[in-house]
C-alpha cells in the first residue's frame, strides 16, 4: 500500500471518480491536481458510498483511493480551508462496509485483504503523514476543538480523533478531555475516563479525586474509586501535591465511616499514597475499627484488610491486627530506628483459624451459598452421610468457631433458590441449631442453577437492578460440586457491572473435579479464595 500511495502522489486526478464527471481543477500543487474547496472530500465520500457493499478492492480502485487520499493531503497542507478535507480523511480511517456494520466483521475475500481493512489502512497511513507535516499543530488543535468536544462530529470520528493524539498526550488536549469527562451523558465519557487515568496531569488528578466524593451512578461504566485506584497503582509518578492533600482528607472520612464498603475502597487507595501520608491514615483507621470490633459493631474483614495493607507497605508479617504494634513500628520508622520496608516482602496476615473445607474466610458478615442439587447426595468418604450433609456440618463448625459476633444467612440452590432470611442473624447456639435442623430437613434434589443464587446474594432484582439494602454480607462463601447450568461466561461481566458497588468478596469451594470454572472466576474477579476438595 505504501508503494501505491507513493505512486499516487505523482499522478494527476483527471479521470471520473465513482462514475461521476470529472471536477474542475483550480490549480496545481506538488505535481497533483487540487480540487476546488471541499471537492476532494465529496469525491472520497462518493467513492466510499459506492464501495459500501463490496468485498474486494481491485487494483484500479485501490489506485483511485490512493489518488483521493493524496489530493486530500495536499489540500490540507495548502493554505485554504482544509477542515472538510481533514474530516473526510478522518472518517475514512474508521469507515466500514455494510457487511462489517451489520455483522461486526467483514466476510473475508478469497484472497488478500477485504475492502474495509484496505480503506482504513490506507486512510490511516495518510492521516499519520498529515500529523507529521508542517500543519500538524493546526490539525491537532482542530481535532481537539472541532471533533473531540463536539457530539455532532459522531462517536466514531471522535474516538478516532482521540486515538490519533492520545499517545502524544499534548497538554492542550486535557481541557477537551475533561469537558467530555464532566458530561455524564456523553457517549465517549467511559473511554475518556479510561484514558485520563493514564494521563498523570495535575488537573486530571484533581478531577479524579473530586469524582470519588460524588454519588455513584451504577449505570456508569467505571466506579470513581476504580478510576483513581488505576491512577495511583499504575502511574509512573505519584499524585500531585494538591490532589494528594484533597484525597487524604476524603480518605480520612471514608476510612472512619461506619459503612464498611466506603472503608474497603479507602484502604487500597490510602496504601498507594506516599507512606508519610498513607500510613497515618491506615493506623488511625486500624485503631478506630479495633475499638468498634471490641464494642461488637466493627468489621473483621476491614481489620484484616487494614493489616494486610500495612504488611504490604512494611514487608512485615506476624504483627497481626494489633494497632499498638503497628503504631510502635511506625514511630520506629519515623525515628530512623528501622527501615520502612523489610526485605523479603509480605503476603499479609494469615487467614482466620475458623475453616470451611480448609478455606478460611476473614469475615464476620457471611452469606453461604450451598449446592443442594441431586449430585450432592453422593456419599462423602466413609462418613456414612452425603456431600450436602457434610456442607451443612462444615458451615456449622465454621460459624461456631467464628463466635456469636459473626452474623450469617444461607442461600440454597438447585433448580430454584431459597434463602434462610433476608437479614444476617448472629451465630448463636440457638440460631445455629435451628439453621442446621432446617437445612438438613431439605436434602439434595434437582439441577445446579448457581446464577440466581449469586444474584440474590448481590441484591440483584429483575433487569439487574441493584438493591444494596439487601446486601448485608461483605463475604459470600459458595460451595458447589459440579458444572453449573449457565457456565462461567456470565461471571466477569456481572462483577464488572456490580462488583465495585457491592464490594462483596466470593470465597469458593468445589467438591470433586467436575467444575466448569465458575467458582474460580467468582473468586478471581472479587479477590477471594478458591479451593477444590475431593469427596
- Using only C-alpha atoms, the radius of gyration works out to 31 Å
Helix content: 40-55%
Total count of strands: 9
- Number of distinct helices: 22
Q: How would you sum up the major sheet?
A: 7 strands, mixed
Question: Per DSSP, what share of the residues sits in E-state strands of 2 or more residues?
Answer: 5-15%
Shape: globular
Total domains, how many?
3
**What is the residue-mean pLDDT, rounded to a whole number?**
85
Distance between the termini: 62 Å
Low-confidence stretches: 1-38, 105-112
**Structural category:** alpha/beta
Architecture overview:
The protein contains 22 helices and 9 strands. It is globular and about 85 Å long. The termini are far apart. The longest helix is centred in the middle third of the chain and has 20 residues, at 275-294. α2 (39-50) packs antiparallel against α3 (59-77), α3 runs antiparallel to α4 and α4 (83-92) crosses α6. The strands form 2 sheets. Strands 3, 4, 5, 6, 7, 8 and 9 form a 7-stranded mixed beta sheet that branches. The protein is of the alpha/beta class and 535 residues long. It has 3 domains: 2-197 and 204-210; 238-334; 365-533, Rossmann fold (3-Layer(aba) Sandwich).
Amino acid at each position: 500500500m505504501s508503494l501505491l500511495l507513493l505512486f499516487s502522489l505523482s499522478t494527476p486526478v483527471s479521470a471520473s471518480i465513482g462514475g461521476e464527471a470529472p471536477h474542475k481543477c483550480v490549480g496545481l500543487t506538488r505535481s497533483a491536481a487540487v480540487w476546488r474547496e471541499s471537492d476532494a472530500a465529496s469525491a472520497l465520500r462518493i467513492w466510499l458510498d459506492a464501495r459500501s457493499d463490496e468485498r474486494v478492492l481491485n487494483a484500479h480502485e485501490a489506485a483511485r483511493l490512493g489518488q483521493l487520499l493524496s489530493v486530500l493531503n495536499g489540500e490540507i497542507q495548502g493554505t485554504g480551508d482544509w477542515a472538510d478535507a481533514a474530516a473526510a480523511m478522518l472518517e475514512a480511517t474508521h469507515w466500514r462496509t455494510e457487511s462489517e456494520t451489520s455483522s461486526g466483521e467483514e466476510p473475508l475475500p478469497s484472497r488478500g485483504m477485504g475492502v474495509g481493512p484496505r480503506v482504513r489502512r490506507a486512510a490511516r497511513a495518510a492521516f499519520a503523514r498529515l500529523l507529521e507535516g508542517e500543519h500538524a499543530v493546526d490539525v491537532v488543535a482542530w481535532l481537539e476543538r472541532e471533533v473531540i468536544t463536539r457530539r455532532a462530529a459522531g462517536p466514531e470520528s471522535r474516538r478516532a480523533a482521540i486515538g490519533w493524539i492520545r499517545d502524544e498526550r499534548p497538554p492542550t488536549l486535557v481541557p477537551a478531555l475533561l469537558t467530555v469527562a464532566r458530561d455524564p451523558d456523553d457517549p465517549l465519557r467511559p473511554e475518556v475516563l479510561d484514558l485520563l487515568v493514564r494521563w498523570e496531569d495535575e488537573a486530571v488528578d484533581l478531577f479524579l479525586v473530586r469524582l470519588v466524593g460524588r454519588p455513584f451512578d451504577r449505570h456508569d461504566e467505571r466506579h470513581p474509586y476504580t478510576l483513581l485506584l488505576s491512577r495511583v497503582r499504575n502511574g509512573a509518578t505519584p499524585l500531585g501535591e494538591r490532589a494528594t492533600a484533597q484525597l487524604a482528607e476524603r480518605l480520612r472520612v471514608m476510612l472512619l465511616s461506619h459503612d464498611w464498603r466506603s472503608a474497603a475502597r479507602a484502604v487500597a487507595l490510602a496504601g498507594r499514597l506516599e507512606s508519610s501520608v498513607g500510613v497515618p491514615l491506615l493506623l488511625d483507621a486500624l485503631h478506630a475499627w479495633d475499638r468498634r470490633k471490641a464494642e461488637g459493631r466493627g468489621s473483621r474483614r476491614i481489620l484484616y484488610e487494614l493489616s494486610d495493607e500495612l504488611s504490604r507497605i512494611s514487608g512485615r508479617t506476624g504483627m497481626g491486627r494489633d494497632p499498638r504494634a503497628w503504631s510502635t513500628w511506625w514511630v520506629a520508622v519515623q525515628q530512623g530506628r528501622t527501615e520502612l520496608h523489610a526485605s523479603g516482602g509480605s503476603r499479609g496476615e494469615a487467614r482466620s483459624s475458623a475453616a470451611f473445607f480448609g478455606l478460611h474466610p476473614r469475615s464476620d458478615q457471611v452469606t453461604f451459598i450451598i449446592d443442594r442439587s441431586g449430585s450432592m447426595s453422593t456419599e462423602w468418604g466413609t462418613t456414612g452421610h452425603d456431600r450436602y450433609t457434610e456442607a451443612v456440618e462444615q458451615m456449622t463448625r465454621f460459624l461456631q468457631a467464628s463466635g456469636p459476633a459473626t452474623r450469617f444467612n444461607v442461600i440454597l440452590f438447585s433448580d430454584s433458590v431459597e434463602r434462610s432470611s433476608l437479614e444476617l442473624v448472629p451465630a448463636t447456639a440457638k440460631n445455629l441449631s435451628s439453621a442446621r435442623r432446617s437445612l438438613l430437613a431439605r436434602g439434595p434434589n434437582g439441577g445446579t442453577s448457581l446464577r440466581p443464587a449469586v444474584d440474590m446474594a448481590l441484591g440483584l432484582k429483575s433487569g439487574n437492578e441493584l438493591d444494596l439494602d439487601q446486601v448485608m454480607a461483605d463475604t459470600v462463601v459458595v460451595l458447589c460440586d459440579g458444572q453449573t447450568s449457565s457456565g462461567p461466561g456470565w461471571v466477569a461481566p456481572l462483577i464488572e457491572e456490580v462488583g465495585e458497588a457491592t464490594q462483596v468478596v466470593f470465597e469458593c469451594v468445589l467438591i470433586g473435579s467436575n467444575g466448569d470454572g465458575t467458582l474460580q472466576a467468582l473468586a478471581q474477579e472479587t479477590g477471594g479464595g478458591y479451593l477444590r476438595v475431593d469427596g
